[in-house]
Amino acid sequence: MDIFIGAFRDGLTMLVSGATDVWSIVLVSIQVSGVAVLLALVLGIPIGFALGTKRFVGRRMMLIIANTGMGLPPVVVGLVVAMLLSRRGPFGKLELLYSQPAMVFAQLIIALPVVAAVSAAAVSAVPRELRLQARSLGASRLQEALMTLKEARMGLLAAVAAGFGSIISEVGAVTMVGGNLAGKTRVMTTAIVQYTRMGDYGPALALASLLMGMVLVVNILLTQVQQSAERYEK
Q1: What is the pLDDT of residues 63-97, one digit of tens each?
Q2: Contact by Cβ (8 Å): 35, 99
Q3: All domains of the chain, ordered by start, with CATH?
Q4: CA 118 centroid distance within chain
C-alpha cells in the first residue's frame, strides 16, 4: 500500500502547487476531445437520423459500417490517419502529423460511428405512426425531423455520452498521430502512460484522478438532463 500512499501524496502536492505542465495537459485534452465530440455530434446525429428514418439504397450497408465502427480499434484508426498524413501519404503536404488537428481527425473517426449508430437506434425507436401523423397535420420536413429528435432525446443523450466516452479515454490513436509532444499534443491518457513507464506514479495518479473526475462530471450532467426530461414527461 505504500506505493499508493506515496503516489497519492505526490500527485496531490503537484495539483495543489498548480504545476503548469499538468494543467496544460488537461487543457489540451479538453480542446482535442471537445472539438472531436462536437464535430461527431454535428455530423453523426444527422447521419443517424437518416439511417433511422429513411429507406434508401445502401442503408443496410451503412448501418453495418456504423455498428462495426463502434468497435473500431483506436490503434487501427491511428495507423490509417498516420499513413494518410505522413510525408509519403496523400495529405503529407499539409504537414498535420503530430499536431492537434491530426488528433481531432483521428478521434472524430472513432466517435462518429458511435454517435451515428446510437442516434440511428434512438430515432428508429420513435413510432413511424407519429411521424406520419405530424406529416398529415401539415408539418414540414424540418418540423417532422425536430419532432422526431425531440422524441428520441433520451437516446441522443446516450449518443453524446457514448461518443465522449469513446475518445476521452483513448490512447492509441492520439499517441500515433499526436506524438505526445509536451505542451502541444500531450493529453492526459498519453501522459499517464509516459509517467507510468518512468515509474513516476504521483503525476500519473493525479492525471488519472482528473480524467475520472472529468468523465464523472460529464455523465452527472447528462444524467441530470435525462432525469429532468423524464420528470417533465410525467
Answers
A1: 999 999 888 899 999 999 999 999 999 998 999 99
A2: no
A3: 22-187 (1.10.3720.10)
A4: 13
- At residue 216, what is the residue type? L
What 8-state DSSP symbol labels residue 185?
T
Amino acid found at 178: G
Burial 4-43 (b: 16+ CB within 10 A, else e): eeebeebbeebbeeeeeebeebbebbeebbebbbebbbee
pTM: 0.88
The position carrying cell 482535442 is: 32
What is the DSSP secondary-structure string of 16-85? HTT-HHHHHHHHHHHHHHHHHHHHHHHHHHHHHHHHHH---TTHHHHHHHHHHHTT--HHHHHHHHHHHH
| pLDDT score at 234 | 53
pLDDT (tens digit per residue) in 153-187 = 888 888 998 999 889 889 989 999 999 998 899 99
Give the closest residue to 52 by CA, choosing from 119, 150, 132. 119
CA distance 78 to 67: 19
For all residues of the chain together, what is the average pLDDT? 86
Alpha-carbon span 90 to 96, nearest angstrom: 12
Task: Specify whether the CB–CB gap between 181 and 98 falls below 8 A.
Answer: yes
- 3-class secondary structure, 97: coil
